[in-house]
Amino acid sequence: MAFNNKLKFVDLELKRLKHNDLYRKLKYGKSNESQYTINGKKLLNLCSNDYLGIPITKIKIKQMQSSSRLISGNDELYKILEEKLAKHKSYQNSLIYPTGYMANLGAISCIAKKGDLILSDELNHASIIEACKLAGAKVSIYKHNNMEDLCKKLKQQAKNKFVITEGIFSMDGDFSNLKEIAEIVEKSNAITILDDAHGDFVVGKDGKGTPNYFNVAKKIDMYISSLSKGLGSFGGYIASQNNVIDLCTNKSKSFIYTSALPSFLIEYSLKRFESDREKQRKKLENNTRLLSNGLKQIGYQINSKTHIIPINIGKEKTAMNFGEFLFKRGVFVQPIRYPTVPKNKARLRVSVTAWLSKNDIESSLAIFEQAAKKFKLYF
Ligand SMILES: Cc1ncc(COP(=O)(O)O)c(C=O)c1O
Asked: Disulfide check for 201: which of 17, 138, 139, 230 has CB 3.0–4.6 Å away?
């Protein structure tokens, strides 16, 4: 197709991104356990969200797709998985969406309305930010994990008040102050919505997530998560009481007006849910300890207590150079830049998985040590 001059303005936007070191380019590769191969180069994968590294589950692809779930895409396996997820998290029911992103969009926007107030942590994920915009309620952003600010902002008048936070923050790897949040929210008769995409299946007893870890599961009114991270499958879901699930089924646009996940993915999630998740969780805990302590010993300032370990760099260009340095030596960690994180707070987001062997961790630490020497200015 010939270049269309009417779209010339797109070049200007791309130029601006490049000028600000914010341009992104897709890298095509193949993922295999702890490795990622790009153009034949084998790299240790330290940026995968397949935290539990559950061994590959074999399934037969029997059916592809039919339609949205309210039409004829609602394979009976959905019911089995939804019941298991609800029971695992101690809720009455759950509802699976095609992705975690869509679960946030759909559930938050159909429950909060004009006249309501949403209090959202300033570091909440893009899907929560977009969901809040769609909801039409007043949105008040509170400072990250700052309970004083949350309490102050909760004093605003509104019909219904919602507090939304992540369980483990995706780019900082810190836990939310969920215990305090749950208590504050309860006192003010507000509603707690938790996005636990990075805590689900990883923390708490039997991987029941951040609410279980903090012993506040009963105080979280709506639990939203992804099947694409800890469980290493695909999809998203909300777990809550029956009437909320009923409303989401009836009013969530990202649930109604889209095709259902194909049934083989539901079967895949079910098999992984039934696998020995506990063994993988223990391995992940051990790997997190090894990598985190190893980085600290080298001299990195590591504050994270979870499997998401950010190495804060600051300038976008430096983060890119840092990532490139690691890449050349066989470690794959993508630099994370604005708008995923604030400007000048670029970082390398190291994520630990149970796929990594002790040997993998030791060899990546040796490369991080070389990087620490080269970039010592920043530590
Ligand atoms: C906190 C958080 N919520 C939701 C999502 C979206 O989940 P999914 O990848 O299933 O769409 C992500 C994924 O990056 C996330 O980090």
From this structure: 230
